[in-house]
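Q: What residues go here?
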């Protein structure tokens, strides 16, 4: 039987991030994708023009529909938009003792548009992080979560990851690709810190392209897919980073949109 993974996130009408990127990633990585929509965005490669939050009762109805029928092997959480939605999702996942929750703390889109209300950060940290097998913040999200300046090096990245442990996740993957100074490095480095405090470094050659829309969604979804297939956390992260690196390397082949284009999720089929 194929493993089933659910993404709980917002949609991207441009298809590059959110639910659409998650489902593409699930399919490309050999799992069956299901979805719970939390918000609709009017979005393309150039930015987000509008956000419509899905009513809470309908978020709950989608969760019931998925978990009452499917044996969900892993959960990916992305854009939740507001505190009320976070509380509904967290309560439902606690009640179901959901397995392998991968939390991508989506706060701001690649375009700079805000995707999480300021007053929702406390709910994210207090309600969802304690349920997470792994949290995957980029540098800007890690700084917002810890109240510290943007990490400038790997030592500061690791320190902020350890601070995030205070919220209760079992592991933190802090992603270095959004560093203000990252363009001067030939490597894109992510650090995985587990509950023992051990640090595992994942490095890949930095790829010169503007087409990186949906990178964070794709990475967290690939991790969830790999966990659902039975991989260890370290192996799941390593395989996910390799997949994302190849999808970025093939992104320019798509040639869609006029802004920051999407990854090529199905590069293996080209």
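A:
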């Amino acid at each position: 039987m194929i493993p089933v993974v659910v993404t709980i996130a917002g949609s991207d009408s441009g298809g590059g991030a959110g639910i659409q990127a998650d489902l593409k990633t699930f399919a490309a990585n050999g799992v069956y994708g299901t979805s719970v929509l939390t918000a609709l965005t009017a979005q393309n490669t150039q930015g987000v023009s509008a956000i419509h939050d899905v009513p809470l009762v309908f978020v709950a109805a989608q969760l019931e529909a998925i978990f009452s029928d499917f044996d969900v092997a892993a959960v990916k959480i992305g854009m939740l938009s507001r505190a009320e939605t976070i509380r509904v999702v967290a309560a439902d996942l606690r009640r179901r003792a959901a397995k392998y929750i991968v939390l991508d703390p989506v706060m701001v889109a690649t375009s700079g548009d805000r995707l999480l209300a300021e007053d929702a950060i406390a709910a994210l940290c207090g309600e969802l992080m304690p349920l997470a097998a792994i949290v995957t913040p980029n540098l800007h999200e890690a700084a917002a979560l810890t109240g510290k300046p943007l990490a400038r090096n790997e030592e500061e990245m690791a320190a902020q990851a350890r601070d995030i442990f205070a919220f209760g996740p079992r592991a933190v993957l802090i992603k270095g690709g959004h560093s203000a100074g990252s363009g001067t490095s030939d490597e894109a480095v992510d650090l995985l810190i587990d509950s023992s405090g051990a640090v595992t470094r994942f490095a890949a050659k930095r790829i010169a392209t503007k087409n990186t829309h949906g990178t964070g969604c794709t990475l967290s979804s690939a991790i969830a897919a790999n966990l659902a297939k039975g991989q260890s956390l370290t192996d799941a992260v390593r395989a996910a980073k390799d997949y994302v690196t190849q999808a970025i390397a093939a992104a320019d082949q798509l040639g869609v949109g006029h802004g920051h284009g999407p990854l090529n999720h199905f590069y293996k089929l080209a």
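A: Context that may help when evaluating the design: The mean pLDDT is 92. The domain at 4-269 is CATH 3.40.1190.20 (UDP-N-acetylmuramoyl-L-alanine:D-glutamate ligase).
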